[in-house]
Amino acid sequence: MKKKITFVFSLLFYLGFALAQYAPPVGEAGTTAIPADSSIIIGWANGVEVARGAMDIRYPELGLTSLGTDNDALGSADNITISLGDGGRATLTFAYPLYDGEGWDLVVFENSFDGNFLELAFVEVSSDGEHFFRFPSHSLTDTINPIGSFGLLDARKINNLAGKYIFGYGTPFDLSELKDEEGLDVMHITQVRVVDVVGTLDDHWCSYDAQGRKINDPFPTDFVSGGFDLDAVGVLYWNIDNGSEEERVFAANIFPNPVKRGYPLTISSSGNRIKSVHLYSLDGKRNEVNYQMINSTQWQITGLQPGVWIIELADGVHRYLQKVVVY
User: Fold this and answer.
1) Could you tell me the residue range of the domain that residue 108 belongs to?
2) Which of 152, 157, 84 is nearest to 118 (CA)?
3) Is 247 part of a structural domain of the chain?
4) Which of 23, 131, 178, 221 could bridge across to 226 with cysteines, CB 3.0–4.6 Å?
5) Domain-terminating residue out of 184, 214, 239
């Protein structure tokens, strides 16, 4: 009887695991997908190093993938991608370090055309450029029957793997999941690495999730656009100061926001004497800005062009960053 009870509990545990569900596709309640034009994205990667993978890892003589260029992984998500190939990787850098804020901290975009043909990738981060730490991934997809070259996946069976959503919607990641990793400072992330999942179930070449399960995604994709197609990596929290949280405090208010083209943007600061004002595009490039002091606590910015900008203020000790929309 004891063996029978043990078997029943084991079976129930297995079934519960097998039926476990993660966030659903775009458009369904509970999805975690973040739109490319979401206001919570404050910046994008502005540097990248790519190591392409093979079109088919089993047959290296076929060569590497070749679709796209390194620059296609930079800037905002636009559905123009670089194909990484089997096991290929892209290491991205940013205008400022990322940090662990409230909720999601970064988001990775792929170009799935229908939200069911999903090519997956691991996501790793580093705070020193040398040691990388991988977000704990989960794949509950069948590990017996291969997906095939053009097979379909269910987003509900996938967690912490980039490529989970249709193009235009990114997969978010939360740095707090890595806060206990020795050698990683989640308040100062300098690199994000995206590594293609090799979706074969063959023991020689397969990829495994954090629980040691084989990850089953479309394979082989033995063409120039094979593997994970990286569109962009967005930032939700930028660490603009290496100091303490207290040192990053800056009492400033920028209004109105959004602001109409041709109208001045007012900066009000109490307790901080502003010494410099800089304007950045979302890819971290500095732009010229016209500003004038109204009095010791108020400044005005004029001549802003339509778009989304980052205003940086500094008083010689502290710095303050805010996203501004001009329409």
Assistant:
1) 21-239
2) 152
3) no
4) 221
5) 239
